[in-house]
Amino acid sequence: MKQIKTFSLAFTYVGCFLGAGFISGQELWQFFGAFGNWGYVGFVLAALLFTVIGILFVRLTQMTKCAEMDKLLVPWDVKWLRAATGVIGALFLFFVVVSMSAGVGAMLTQLFRVPTWLGSAVFMLAVFLVALLGVSGMVNAFSAMIPILVLATVGFAVGAWCTFGTEGILQLQYTNTNPLMPNWFIATLTFVAYNILGGIGIMSPVGQYVREKKHVYVGIALSGVMLLAVAGSILTSLASYPEAVAAELPMVALASRLNGTLGTVYGLMLLLAMFCNALASLVGLIAYLEQKARFVREKKKPVLVGLCVLAWCASLLGFGEIIAVVYPIFGYLSIVFIVCMVVHFVQCRKKEKASA
Length: 356
Hints:
Blueprint: H1 6-15, H2 20-24, H3 26-33, H4 38-64, H5 69-73, H6 79-112, H7 116-131, H8 134-164, H9 184-207, H10 213-240, H11 250-258, H12 260-292, H13 294-298, H14 300-315, H15 319-355
């Protein structure tokens, strides 16, 4: 694969996060909007953490020339800890694919009354076909789709502000009832942690293709700005029309309220986001499994088929339930691994300086 430069890196990193929960507004509202105006502060902090940790991780892949998620996260040669890290990371990537499949099913049912199981099944088939192309296919898909998603989300926000007004944007009410997230700060940390865990699994095989430091710093910083723009657009849109929050896919409900056709357009945009996120997670997962198991390297297609079928079956549990329970649990687990990754970065940076 050819070298990955600034914009391709930025779009790929953003694509790690812009999935069903993020673009639909469901995830952002549960982790930020439900905490009132402090939710805005929370996401600014989240965007900053995404940027800093993203830079540290891609630089770590450069310094170590390693693409294995468990070895990047755990600097010590402790087999059980590395194994636990790999298993948790792989499981989270799998659950991201599950949540994307569930989100597609919910969206197609909400917009077109397509049976949930059928919409999810067709979606997983499409993800499987593109995942066969590997990392290069994923990066090319993100470079084409992510700019459209970012611009369109900002455009919908402008439409919501013009239609519903901006009076309620800074009057968010505290409505959180999730005991796993007692306050906005804890919610922010768990949100960042589980997203970074998925991002690390996806970026591990990508980082080796980023050759220059300047592409890392500028690319990841640009991705932080894009994430902030998208999240700000979604949160302020829902604040201007809070009735949409009750829907399984709040932003689709808001777009439909603006105009029936716009609801369909936003649904298609959401489908693109879910496709990108599911594709990234599946590519990251299969890349990790290939590194660890000869069987997977030799039988990649059958393993991909099995993973897609399992993800489809698990997605029938429902979209909102997956975000409310599974994501916070993985968030708490991920904090430990992020701390280990930072320690690894510091160790490698010291060695780099000593050899300079």
